[in-house]
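Table S2 (text version). Query chain:
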Amino acid sequence: NNLMGSLFGRRLHEFESNRMVRIQFRLLAACPPILLGVLVRELGEITDYAGTTGFIIGFSFPALLYLQSRLKASRKNFLTSTLYESYASSKPLA
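Corresponding C-alpha coordinate output:
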Protein backbone atom coordinates (compact mmCIF):
# COMPACT_ATOMS: atom_id res chain seq x y z
CA ASN A 1 0.00 0.00 0.00
CA ASN A 2 2.87 2.39 0.72
CA LEU A 3 4.44 1.66 -2.66
CA MET A 4 1.12 2.23 -4.38
CA GLY A 5 0.60 5.44 -2.42
CA SER A 6 4.01 6.75 -3.39
CA LEU A 7 3.38 6.02 -7.06
CA PHE A 8 -0.28 6.98 -7.42
CA GLY A 9 -0.53 9.66 -4.73
CA ARG A 10 -4.01 11.09 -4.31
CA ARG A 11 -5.39 8.80 -7.02
CA LEU A 12 -4.61 5.72 -4.93
CA HIS A 13 -8.30 4.95 -4.33
CA GLU A 14 -8.77 4.54 -8.09
CA PHE A 15 -6.18 1.74 -8.29
CA GLU A 16 -6.76 -0.05 -4.96
CA SER A 17 -9.77 -1.88 -6.34
CA ASN A 18 -7.79 -3.18 -9.33
CA ARG A 19 -6.74 -6.69 -8.35
CA MET A 20 -3.92 -6.99 -10.89
CA VAL A 21 -2.30 -3.75 -9.71
CA ARG A 22 -2.51 -4.93 -6.08
CA ILE A 23 -0.95 -8.29 -6.96
CA GLN A 24 1.88 -6.62 -8.86
CA PHE A 25 2.70 -4.32 -5.97
CA ARG A 26 2.55 -7.18 -3.46
CA LEU A 27 4.97 -9.18 -5.58
CA LEU A 28 7.23 -6.15 -5.88
CA ALA A 29 7.21 -5.70 -2.10
CA ALA A 30 7.86 -9.41 -1.50
CA CYS A 31 10.88 -9.70 -3.81
CA PRO A 32 13.63 -8.01 -1.69
CA PRO A 33 13.11 -10.11 1.48
CA ILE A 34 12.87 -13.32 -0.53
CA LEU A 35 15.99 -12.56 -2.56
CA LEU A 36 17.99 -11.54 0.51
CA GLY A 37 16.72 -14.60 2.37
CA VAL A 38 18.08 -16.79 -0.40
CA LEU A 39 21.45 -15.04 -0.33
CA VAL A 40 21.89 -14.75 3.45
CA ARG A 41 21.08 -17.95 5.28
CA GLU A 42 22.58 -17.27 8.69
CA LEU A 43 20.82 -15.15 11.28
CA GLY A 44 24.22 -14.04 12.58
CA GLU A 45 25.03 -12.28 9.32
CA ILE A 46 21.72 -10.49 9.35
CA THR A 47 22.22 -9.30 12.91
CA ASP A 48 25.72 -8.09 12.00
CA TYR A 49 24.05 -5.60 9.68
CA ALA A 50 21.03 -4.84 11.83
CA GLY A 51 22.88 -4.93 15.14
CA THR A 52 21.41 -5.67 18.50
CA THR A 53 18.38 -3.51 17.80
CA GLY A 54 17.46 -5.62 14.80
CA PHE A 55 17.91 -8.76 16.87
CA ILE A 56 15.62 -7.46 19.63
CA ILE A 57 13.01 -6.27 17.14
CA GLY A 58 13.11 -9.59 15.29
CA PHE A 59 12.33 -11.59 18.40
CA SER A 60 10.18 -9.22 20.46
CA PHE A 61 7.75 -7.82 17.87
CA PRO A 62 6.09 -11.15 16.97
CA ALA A 63 5.46 -11.87 20.65
CA LEU A 64 4.10 -8.37 21.26
CA LEU A 65 1.83 -8.64 18.22
CA TYR A 66 0.58 -12.00 19.48
CA LEU A 67 -0.25 -10.62 22.93
CA GLN A 68 -1.93 -7.52 21.49
CA SER A 69 -4.04 -9.54 19.04
CA ARG A 70 -5.22 -11.83 21.86
CA LEU A 71 -6.18 -8.80 23.92
CA LYS A 72 -8.12 -7.21 21.07
CA ALA A 73 -9.84 -10.50 20.25
CA SER A 74 -10.97 -10.95 23.84
CA ARG A 75 -12.23 -7.35 24.01
CA LYS A 76 -14.34 -7.92 20.89
CA ASN A 77 -15.61 -11.27 22.23
CA PHE A 78 -13.81 -13.28 19.54
CA LEU A 79 -12.20 -16.63 20.20
CA THR A 80 -8.65 -16.23 21.45
CA SER A 81 -7.58 -19.80 20.71
CA THR A 82 -7.34 -21.33 17.27
CA LEU A 83 -6.64 -24.71 15.75
CA TYR A 84 -3.06 -23.60 15.14
CA GLU A 85 -2.35 -22.73 18.74
CA SER A 86 0.12 -24.87 20.67
CA TYR A 87 2.20 -24.61 23.82
CA ALA A 88 4.82 -22.56 21.96
CA SER A 89 2.19 -19.96 21.10
CA SER A 90 0.95 -19.46 24.63
CA LYS A 91 1.03 -16.43 26.91
CA PRO A 92 3.85 -17.65 29.18
CA LEU A 93 6.22 -18.15 26.26
CA ALA A 94 5.29 -14.91 24.47
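Notes on Table S2: The chain has a mean pLDDT of 79. The two ends are 29 Å apart (CA to CA).
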